[in-house]
Amino acid sequence: MTTTTRSIPPNGSSQSVCRRAAAARIVVNVLRIVAAAGGLLCAVLFATSLNAEEKFHRVNGEQIQAAFSGMELTDEVHWREVYDRNGTLTTYEMGRKRVGKWRVQAAQLCTEVGDGGDSGCYEVWLSGRKVELRREVSDPSPLEGVLERPTGR
């Protein structure tokens, strides 16, 4: 007669060992899923940030008139320019107020501000609320700001 001996783990039954092994496999799989989801989330956020940055496009005279009338162009810190519907331009820069005129001419935004203010005509380039005023297409340093409703600060 042959006898077989079965080894029982010192701290529990064989079912207990199987349960622990299954639990360990579950934990490993959950960690893999979490890691994959984290990677996917990072990829989605990165792609979204790339798409969120729109490209600037040049606008025509009618679009300039519609965008600037009754609005304020500002860098949100140092200066702001209020473009009234009647053609009045009021600028505020470093605590100094100037009043002038603005108009649209030949698909450009033209400003006239006396008393040392910047006057001239600019191409207008938009990307959402962001604005670039360029003297010419290859302007290396356009005036940059955002359009918003006048704040009356």
Description:
The chain has an 8-stranded antiparallel barrel. The termini are far apart. It has 2 helices and 9 strands; from the N terminus they run αβαββββββββ. The protein has 153 residues and is of the alpha+beta class.
The largest beta-sheet arranges its strands as 2-3-4-5-6-7-8-9
Distance between the termini: 101 Å
Q: Number of helical segments?
A: 2
Structural Rg: 33 Å
Number of domains: 2
Helices and strands in order:
Layout: H1 14-52, E1 57-58, H2 61-68, E2 71-74, E3 79-83, E4 88-93, E5 96-105, E6 108-113, E7 120-127, E8 130-134, E9 143-148
Antiparallel strand pairs: 1-7, 2-3, 2-9, 3-4, 4-5, 5-6, 6-7, 7-8, 8-9
Tags for this entry?
153 residues; alpha+beta; Lipocalin; eight-stranded antiparallel barrel; 2 helices; 31% helix; rod-shaped
What's the short version?
31% of the residues lie in helices and 34% in strands.
